[in-house]
Amino acid sequence: MELQDIVSDSIVIKETAVNEDEEDVYVDLSSLDFDKLKAVFAKAPRKNTIVFNLQEAIEQQLEQMMKENPLRIDFYERYKEIIDEYNQGKSLEDTIKTFDNLNDFIKDLSFEEQRAVRENLPDQETLAIFDLLKEGKELTTKELKEVKKVAAKTLDILKSEKLKVENWRESRQVKAQVKSTIYDNLLYLPEDFYNDEEVGLKTASVYQHIYTNY
C-alpha cells in the first residue's frame, strides 16, 4: 500500500493533445520520490512485488512515449533487456539488481521527456516530427534549426487545417491533402542534405506517424 501511494503520486489525468474533450491517464514517473521508493524496497519482505509494480508503471509510460514518438524504440529494447535478464534468475540478488536498473531507466525516461525543452521545441508532438526528419542525418547547427522550423510549421498547418476534418482518415481526398501538405512543407528542408528522393521518403514516414496518431 505504501508503494502504491508513492507510485500513485505520479499518475495524473491529462487531456489528449489531439482531442481536448478526451482524457487519458498519464504516468509521470519523473515525479517519483526515489529515496522514499528505495526505503520501502529495502524493508519490503516481497521485493519482487515492488519490481513487478514498477514494471507496470514503466510499461504505461513507455507506451505513452512510444505513441508520441516512434523513434523511442531504443528505450523499449533496453527495458526488454532488463526484464529478460531478471526473468532468467529472479533470485534476491537479481531482484535487487533489477530494481536498481529500473530506477536508472526511469531517470533516463524522464531525461528524454525533457528533450523537447532542451531542443527549444514547443512540445512532444513537434519533437516527434523533428526526430523523423533528422533521422539518419548528420546536420550542422544551422541546418538543425531549419529542420526544426520545418517540423513546427508542418505540424501547425496540419493541425489548423486538415486534421480538423472529422474522421479525416476515412476520406481519400483529405488523406491525399494531408500527404501533399507534408510534402510541400518538407521541400523547405536544407537542399544540401535532402534530395528529392529523401523528401519523398521523409514525407512517407511523417505521414505514417500522423495517420497513426491523429
Could you list the spans in which at least 5 consecutive residues all have pLDDT below 50? Answer: 11-27
- Share in β-strands: under 5%
The number of distinct β-strands equals 2
Query: SSE order, as H and E?
Result: HEEHHHHHHHHH
Q: What order do the strands of the largest sheet run in, or round the barrel if closed?
A: 1-2
Give the termini separation: 37 Å
List the total number of helices: 10
* Overall pLDDT confidence: 86
Commentary on this structure:
- The protein has 214 residues and is mainly alpha-helical.
- The chain has helices at residues 2-8, 34-43, 47-68, 73-89, 92-113, 115-118, 124-134, 141-160, 172-186, 196-213, and strands spanning 11-15, 23-27.
- A two-stranded antiparallel sheet has the order 1-2.
- Helix 3 (47-68) runs parallel beside helix 5 and helix 4 runs antiparallel to helix 5.
- Mean pLDDT is 86; it is low at 11-27.
Task: Write a short abstract of this structure.
This protein has 214 residues and is mainly alpha-helical.
